[in-house]
Amino acid sequence: MFDLTLSMLVMRVLAALIIIGVHGFALAAAAKLLGDGQAGDRLSVSPFGHVDLLGLLAFLLFGFGWILPVPMNFKRIRGGVWAVPLVLVAGLAPVLLIAALAVYLLPWASVSFSYSTAPMVVAFLGILARLSIGFVLLNLLPVPPFSLGQLLVACREDWRESAKRFHFAFAIIALLLGYAVQPWIAGAVDAVAHTFFGDISLLSRAR
User: Fold this and answer.
1) C-alpha dihedral over 30, 34, 37, 38, to 10 degrees?
2) What are the TM regions of this chain, as residue ranges (predicted)?
């Protein structure tokens, strides 16, 4: 689980930052389009306004993670709590597109770069795809700090305040959960990748 080389860690950090930036921007943009613009400072694909350090650590260790909660209030959003699925899909769909693009580029990268460079590019694309899929799967869990949990918390003011107070505790629990279910996550990522993308032999090298 923890036999990661330095190059693997660097590639995981880079891949995680891409995912974090895209997901955070997509959530903030969805909220603004639906009437809640309070997360205006999060309307950027730069990951540094979205990154949660424990969430980034989870990416490095377990292959999934989470972002800082995007401020939103579903009383201001058109559709109210019924808009939760729409905002969630708007936030996670771009991450799935990242996975699809990475998988699509894998065969091309394996033959388009030099003998010394191709393995690194293929490894990075594989890591990007695997982390993207793992991120989507875990952020469907309806508990903080995962995205669906954060969106449900945003539906009520008392829940939002409690989530702010206990964010660190939720994050620690999520790390422990990641340690316990990491083998399941890896298997689930393979299953999803095989279902949607077919041959994942190149992707499997990025475990």
Assistant:
1) -80
2) 54-74, 81-106, 118-141, 166-185
Residue closest to 104 by CA, chosen among 139, 80, 129: 129
| Claim: this prediction has a pTM higher than 0.70 | yes
Cβ-contact 185, 138 below 8 angstroms = yes
Closest CA to 22 of 122, 131, 142, 182: 131
Q: Of 136, 7, 27, which Cα lies nearest the Cα of 71?
A: 27
Amino acid letter, residue 110: S
**Each residue's pLDDT tens digit in the chain (207 positions)?**
555 788 889 999 999 999 999 999 999 999 999 999 999 999 999 999 999 999 999 999 888 999 999 999 999 999 999 999 999 999 999 999 999 999 999 889 888 888 888 889 999 999 999 999 999 999 999 999 999 999 999 998 888 888 889 999 999 999 998 888 888 888 888 888 777 776 555 555 555
